[in-house]
């Protein structure tokens, strides 16, 4: 078992519901083992600026139900440079921090990997991103909460679409990954789903919507992932509206945007984040660093950060076929 005296925690990149539950789990697990905890505010930006705060079990009391992150998030341009990472590593050494737990998405874990490579910093990553696009974990913290928020909004949109016989193009987040859109399509009963993983065929979109209207569908929901190739729901709606064949079709656009990143985390995310946080501490105590903690088939797994940074998680083709069959 590796001897640790002080461990730093940061949350970086985009916020995700459940980050606080992960911070809490890391902190309380370390405190139980009588290891000092240092919170690093505003992610890598705070690491470069030395924005550190000592934490204990009381510091993370009553936060498990809160969205966002008490440590704040930021994106640091300076950390992208070698000199910025050198300063970050120096600040860790000056503060006598033996290891770092980095909570966040692809950019956060790539940064953690660079700190390890360039300055031999002992790091363990915890995946927290609503995009669910990280190899090495079946789900990432925040994904389930974002999905539930999106589904709730889609149900509401369906009501007004049905009342007015409208076609709604609903855009959800997910960067260049279609996990949220695909599962929303199934859970929200969408008639069509457009994903970044596949080329968007405008002719197919037009034919599908026209066939739905010809069949006198009372309403239609087209799920659009923000990273699909035509520019998102507004661009697709503009292209459809420019076609005279769509003059009689009432098209509307709803971009759910950052509503999916806010709000209280779901029970599933709270449990997942807690497992990941305690798993990160266990890895450090066992001398395992340079890894991301994940849950695969309901078991804790460690994936090298190099593998997480260099690979892209694949869409579930069985779910895609299901969405197409049920649409």
Could you describe the 3D structure shown?
The protein is α/β, with parallel strands linked by helices and 327 residues long. It folds into two domains: 6-142 and 265-310, 3-Layer(aba) Sandwich (Rossmann fold); 143-262, 3-Layer(aba) Sandwich (Rossmann fold). Helices cover 42% and strands 18% of the residues. The strands form two sheets. It has a seven-stranded mixed sheet, with helices on both faces. Helix 1 (19-32) links the parallel strand 1 (6-11) and strand 2. It is elongated and about 70 Å long. The model has no long low-confidence stretch (mean pLDDT 93).
Short description:
By secondary structure, the chain is of the alpha/beta class. 42% of the residues lie in helices and 18% in strands.
Task: Describe this protein with a few key phrases.
327 residues; alpha/beta; Rossmann fold; 2 domains; seven-stranded mixed beta sheet; 42% helix; elongated
Helix/strand/pairing class, anyone? alpha/beta
- What does the overall shape look like? elongated
Task: State the oligomer.
Answer: single chain
What is the level-2 CATH architecture name of the largest domain?
3-Layer(aba) Sandwich
Taking all residues together, what is the mean pLDDT? Answer: 93
User: Remind me, CATH topology of the largest domain?
Assistant: Rossmann fold
Main beta sheet: 7 strands, mixed
């Amino acid at each position: 078992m590796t001897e640790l005296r002080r461990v730093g925690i940061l949350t970086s990149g985009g916020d995700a519901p459940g980050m606080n539950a992960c911070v809490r789990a890391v902190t309380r697990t370390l405190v139980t083992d009588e290891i000092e905890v240092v919170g690093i505010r505003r992610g890598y930006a705070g690491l470069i600026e030395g924005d550190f705060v000592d934490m204990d079990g009381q510091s993370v009391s009553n936060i498990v139900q809160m969205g966002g992150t008490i440590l704040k998030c930021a994106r640091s341009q300076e950390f992208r440079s070698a000199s910025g990472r050198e300063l970050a590593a120096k600040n860790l050494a000056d503060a006598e921090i033996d290891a770092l737990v980095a909570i966040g998405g692809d950019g956060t874990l790539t940064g953690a990997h660079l700190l390890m490579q360039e300055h031999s910093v002992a790091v363990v990553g915890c995946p927290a991103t609503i995009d669910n696009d990280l190899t090495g974990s079946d789900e990432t913290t925040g994904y389930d909460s974002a999905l539930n928020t999106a589904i709730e909004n889609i149900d509401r949109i369906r009501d007004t679409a049905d009342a007015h016989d409208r076609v709604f193009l609903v855009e959800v987040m997910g960067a260049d990954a279609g996990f949220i859109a695909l599962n929303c399509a199934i859970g929200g009963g969408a008639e069509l789903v457009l994903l970044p993983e596949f080329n968007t065929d405008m002719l197919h979109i037009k034919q599908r919507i026209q066939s739905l209207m010809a069949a006198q569908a009372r309403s239609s929901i087209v799920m659009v992932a923000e990273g699909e190739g035509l520019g998102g729901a507004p661009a697709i709606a503009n292209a459809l509206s420019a076609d005279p064949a769509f003059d009689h079709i009432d098209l509307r656009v709803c971009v759910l945007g950052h509503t999916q990143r806010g709000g209280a985390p779901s029970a599933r995310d709270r449990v997942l984040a807690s497992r990941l946080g305690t798993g990160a501490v266990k890895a450090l105590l066992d001398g395992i660093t340079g890894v991301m903690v994940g849950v695969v088939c309901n078991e804790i797994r460690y994936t090298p950060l190099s593998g997480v940074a260099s690979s892209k998680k694949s869409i579930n083709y069985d779910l895609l076929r299901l969405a197409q069959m049920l649409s």
